[in-house]
Structures are given as structure tokens and as C-alpha cells.
């Protein structure tokens, strides 16, 4: 009887208590109206995206012979990227990027970071360090677009 009681307390302590705490945290976050913030989110009244010049570059296969299409990018400063809000990102994606034929799109910062959008049709992006072709080198987090809402999830690796 004593070993059964000991097992019960261990199960409660190891599985049930953390689960209850996690559920309480999720419910609190949901009902309090608090949402996950982007790591660089600084609320801004000015939206730099409508005035950003879009550049394009040709993309070839690994041999450099076959033309595959074009990639698009804009040049942004770290402070501009830091002022980007989820609403501004979604509006830019929905009004400018969604219906383009780019293979991928990048917000490029001079410090080597930026947003990499691998599929301009779904709007998901990766906040990362990028290479000279505007592709991911080291992911730091991900932007997920669901309906008319953007979510940010940090890369835990």
C-alpha cells in the first residue's frame, strides 16, 4: 500500500502538476489578451515599408546555367526592422508580396540579419542571419501567418 501511494505522489509530481501549470499559463495568456511579442517589437507610428524600394536579382541553378526565376529584397536598417510591427508586416505581405512571382523575398539589414520569406504565397518568414543570396544561414525565429494574424516563435536550437 505504501509503494502505491508513493507511486501516486510521484506521478502527480512529475506529470500532473506541470501539466496543470502549463494549462493555467495558456489560459491566463489567452484570457488576459496578452500575445507573444516579436523579439524586436518596438511600437512605431511610422511604417517604412510602403516607401521601401524593391530590388530583384536573377536566380540560377547550382551550375549557373539554368535561369530559375527572380528573388526580391528590400534594404532596411536594423532600427527600421526593430520598429516593424506584426500588423505592418502582415499588411505589406498581403498588399505587396502575396501575388508576386519571386522565388523568395528578403528584408536585408547591413549587419547580416533580416527576414527571409521562402514562399511568398503563404507569408511565413524566418528572422535570421542571411547570406549574400538572401537565404538562411542561422535561424533565430519564425513568423507564422494564420488568417489575418502573425505569430512569432523563437528558434530553440
How would you concisely characterize the structure shown here?
This protein has 157 residues and is α+β, with helices and mostly antiparallel strands. It is 31% helix and 30% strand.
Q: Give the rounded overall mean pLDDT.
A: 76
Main sheet overview: 7 strands, mixed
Low-confidence residue ranges: 34-38, 40-44
C-alpha Rg (nearest Å): 21 Å
Strand proportion: 25-35%
- Summing up helix and strand content along with how strands pair, one would put the structural category as alpha+beta
Number of domains: 2
Helix content: 25-40%
- Name the shape in a single word: elongated
State the end-to-end CA separation.
Answer: 44 Å
The strand order across the widest sheet is 1-2-3-4-5-6-7
Helix-strand topology string: HEEHHEEEEE
Number of helices: 3
In total, how many beta strands?
Answer: 7
